Amino acid sequence: MSIPRIHATPKSNMPLGEEVKPGFRTKTIATRLTPDELAEIEAAAEGAGQALSEWLRNTALRAARPRPADPADLILAEVWAVRYALLNLFHAAAQAASEGTQLLPDSILKIRDQADARKLQQARKLLEDFSASEGKERGHMPP
Fold first, then answer.
1. CB 78 within 8 A of CB 119
2. How many CA atoms lie within 13 Å of 55's alpha carbon, on the beta-carbon side?
3. If pLDDT is split at 50, 70 and 90, which confidence band does 74 have?
4. What per-residue confidence (pLDDT) applies to 43?
5. Which of 19, 25, 108, 118 has a CA that sits 20 to 30 A from residue 53's CA?
6. Residue 43 is part of which domain span?
7. Are 54 and 90 in the same domain?
8. % of residues, the chain, pLDDT over 70
9. Does the predicted model carry a pTM greater than 0.90?
10. Residue 100 DSSP symbol
11. Are residue 77 and residue 113 in the same domain, yes or no?
12. Quick check: 131 and 142 in contact, CB under 8 A?
């Protein structure tokens, strides 16, 4: 009695067990550090209770991915938007008065929409500029 053989067609050309599975990490990134830099990074990873590779991966991905706004960013964004809207409303009202016209409701809505569209970007720029100026005062640039 013979047993029929079933021939399976391989799904990939890679050796058995070496197929790339979705979601598995297959790429590496190398970098060079000074001994002091390495010590700082190792201390940060240890402080976070993570393996060095895990801490590096999480830190890099957190920096690379869009993040929800920090509450401080949101507050600064709103303050910037109020300032922007007030200054532009005062200017538009003064210009309309000098021309003998009235400030139209559409103009007010346009100013509001412009403030809303730019507020978060402007708040982050203000924070970056502030951090950069602090680094220059201390004699080094921020990370």
1. yes
2. 14
3. confident
4. 95
5. 19
6. 35-64
7. no
8. 76
9. no
10. T
11. yes
12. yes
Any domain includes 121:
yes
Is the pLDDT at 6 greater than 70? The verdict is no
H/E run at residue 137: helix 105-138
Secondary structure class of 18 (helix, strand, coil) = coil
Long-range contacts (CB closer than 8 Å, 24 or more residues apart) made by 77-83: 77/119, 77/120, 77/122, 77/123, 78/119, 79/123, 80/115, 80/119, 80/122, 80/123, 80/126, 81/115, 81/116, 81/118, 81/119, 82/115
Establish if 20 belongs to a structural domain: no
Residues 133 and 78 in one domain: yes
pLDDT beyond 80 at 69: no
For tokens 């951090």, name the residue.
131
Closest CA to 115 of 94, 86, 90: 86
C-alpha dist (Å) from residue 36 to 40, 41, 75, 112: 6, 9, 37, 49
Instruction: Say which residue, 41 or 71, is predicted with more confidence.
Output: 41
Number of domains in the chain: 2
Tokens matching residue 128: 């970056």
What is the distance between the alpha carbons of residues 10 and 49, in angstroms, rounded to a whole number?
A: 42
Q: What is the structure's pLDDT at 21?
A: 54
Q: Which amino acid is at 39?
A: A
